[in-house]
Amino acid sequence: MAAAAAPAEAAAAEATSAAAIRDGFAELERQQELLATCTRLYQQLTDHFGSLERGIKSRSDSLRARRRVVELRASRRLDALRRRELSLDGSVSLALSRLEALTNNKRDRDGSPSPQSDSGGVAEGLAPLCASMDSAGFLAFVVERRKEVDALRAELPAALKRCVDPARFVMDAVSEVFPVDRRAVRSPADLAWACVLILEAVVPALADPDPEIGEARPMVPKAARERARGMATEWKEAAERKGGVEGAKPPDAHAFLQHVATFAVAEKEDRELYRRIVLSFSWRRQMPRLALTLGLEDDMEDIIEELVTKGQQLDAVNFAYEAGLLEKFSPVPLLKSYLEDSKKISCTSDNLSTSSGQSGVNANKKEQSALRAVIKCVEDHKLEAEFPLEDLRTRLEELEKAKTEKKAVSSCSSGGSSGPASKRIRASNGGAMPPAKAGCMSDNTGAPSSPATTTTFIGSPSSHASYGAGSPYSYDRPAGHTLYCGQSSLPMTYPPVVPNVGIAVSYPPPPMTYPVYAGYNSGLGVYGNSMAPPFHQAYYR
After folding, report:
1. Which domain of life is it from (predicted)?
2. What DSSP assignment string belongs to 162-179?
3. How far apart are CA 256 and CA 271, in angstroms?
4. CA–CA separation, 491 vs 512, rounded Å?
5. Helices 149-160 and 192-201: crossing angle, nearest 10°?
6. Which residues of the chain have pLDDT under 70?
7. Neighbour-count burial for 230-247, b at 16+ CB within 10 Å, e otherwise
């Protein structure tokens, strides 16, 4: 019995040992998985906290930089306020002396006739109007001399300094058309350009007499400032009623921003409105300067980035120069990006060009415009050393040469006419137009027109004013009508056509049928049909 129990005990012990070993290995595997999980979690937490630390450090650096900028700006403004405070007495003395001089000059001119604007120059016409505070005559003079805008821009600042109250004078002058056009007869239709011109020109006249402060402190009386603020509010309300400032006309929006900047009536709650207008009309030359004047210097980086995103790299370059952000927004890469985008647009237009080539012509014009804009931007900002212009000028010359050659070929193919070859001119008497593909058309019998047998006559085939005795179709116009391809001396040949009419006539059949285009009839019911006339190709030679 003992001998038989011994093997059983050994087998049980062996089974127990194997189970213990399996359990041990399973526990080791669980411990290994737990260790791997802990290691992975530790690595994830390390990466997460590292990312948080880097983000906090970046934000801290950004806050420190902003703090330095704010402290520097606050220091500058405090210094400017101290200078203004110290200069008040001197500025008042200078203003009083200027006012006394203007009063003396006005007294000396009283009784003498004012020179007429038509007979004198721009300066001679502006001076008496400003000195006498004739705002209505002043605006009429500016509008009348709109073709001399460069002379006006040069003479207006000096003339407006002769006003006793430049702020009131300018607001009186533009009040008829800004903030809303109150004219009974709006001719000329748009005078926003004149408002912008006048509002820009009055800035030196409103500047502080102290040369160290100058335009930084506009000398606008309190009553005039409140009036200017009311005019700005009226413009905003009118723009919102019309669908928002983005839908306003560019000159009108520009006049609004210039008005706010000129009279220093910018409001903090309207900064987002100013930003929207600046972005909507960023292509206007004065927008970068106006953005800074209206207090958007903190938003300039965001504005430039948005312009780049929208593909307006040229505008972004101008804003970067005005804001002094050239280190962050280098102009050369922006200009190259603009050229690449314009080339992509041109290639896309070329691929979509039609048989007439009109899309190709438009693509050519777009590329020329882009090249000229980049060349002007480089020249304005003196970037020739960093951005050579030889290749751009060469490409521009090639495009202009191709355009000239295409015009010459088009002129020759159209028989020397001044318009495009594809255009068809309607006769002035209301006659029918020749079809676009006359040589490929068939007559009203269904057979194609043949140039072998032709009937030749002189005159326009679309005029049936009278029938004379000498010819079955004598027209009342001179021979050689000039409306068709400009050929006044060559006969026009047409193939004989058997008229398809249902009414018997007593006179010989006409040399051609008269078409009906979209329900249009020539006025002769006998010849009305729905078939296009089979014009011979000689008609276009």
Report:
1. Eukaryota
2. T-SSHHHHHHHHHTTTSS
3. 13
4. 15
5. 40
6. 1-5, 91, 102-103, 105-120, 210-213, 346-361, 413-541
7. ebbeebbeebeeeeebee
- State the DSSP code for 434: P
Quote the pLDDT of residue 223.
92
Pairing of β 492-494 and β 455-457: antiparallel
For residue 486, what are the CA distances in angstroms to 71, 89, 337, 459, 480?
75, 77, 47, 12, 9
Q: b/e string for 502-539 if b means 16 or more Cβ within 10 A?
A: eeeeeeeebbbbbbbeeeeebeeebbebebbbbbbebb
Tell how many helices (H) and how many strands (E) occur in the chain.
16, 4
Specify the pTM. Answer: 0.59
- Coil, helix or strand at residue 368: helix
- 399, 379, 380, 397: which is closest to 388 by C-alpha? 379
* Residue 415 confidence (pLDDT): 55
**Beta strands 514-515 and 528-529: pairing type?**
parallel
DSSP label at residue 149: H
Q: Determine the residue type at 65.
A: A
Inter-CA distances, 405 with 346, 357, 380, Å:
19, 14, 31
Helix or strand or coil: residue 435?
coil
Encode 344-376: b = buried (16+ Cβ within 10 Å), e = exposed: eebeebeeeeeeeeeebbebbeebbebbebbbe
Strand partners, 528: 514
Give the tens place of pLDDT for each residue, 187-234: 777 889 999 999 999 999 888 776 666 777 788 889 999 999 999 999
CB 438 within 8 A of CB 534: yes
Query: Is the separation of the CB atoms in 283 and 251 below 8 Å?
Result: no
HSE-up (13 A, CA, CB side) for residue 15 = 6
Alpha-helical segments (H) within 110-165: 122-131, 135-144, 149-160
Kind and range of the H or E run holding 458: none
Beta-ladder partners of 456: 493
* Contact indicator for 334, 317 with CB cutoff of 8 Å: yes
